[in-house]
Amino acid sequence: MSQMHLSGQLVCRDRDQAAVVAEHLSDHVARTRAEPGCISFSVASTVDPLVWQVDECFQDSSALKAHQDRVAGSDWGRVTAGIERRYAIRGL
């Protein structure tokens, strides 16, 4: 099985959405990094205060799917549901 890489941006509509990301990000990152199969995971602010760079690497497609399933039911998934995601996945 090949590693799965996700890269892209989390694009906030306004400062309120950016504040939600900032408030909940550290918990989301910690939980994700603790997941089985997570090789690397980072979400970093950019020069645009409304855009966050997202880079993820998971052991295989099953680990990425498990991550996505966990996020869908998490606090992070709920509070960021309306925030645009522009992601590309490699390794499929």
Automatic annotation (TrEMBL):
Keywords: Monooxygenase, Oxidoreductase. Residues 15-69 form the ABM domain. GO terms for molecular function: monooxygenase activity. Pfam families: ABM. InterPro entries: ABM_dom, Dimeric_a/b-barrel. This is Antibiotic biosynthesis monooxygenase. It comes from Cryobacterium algoritolerans.
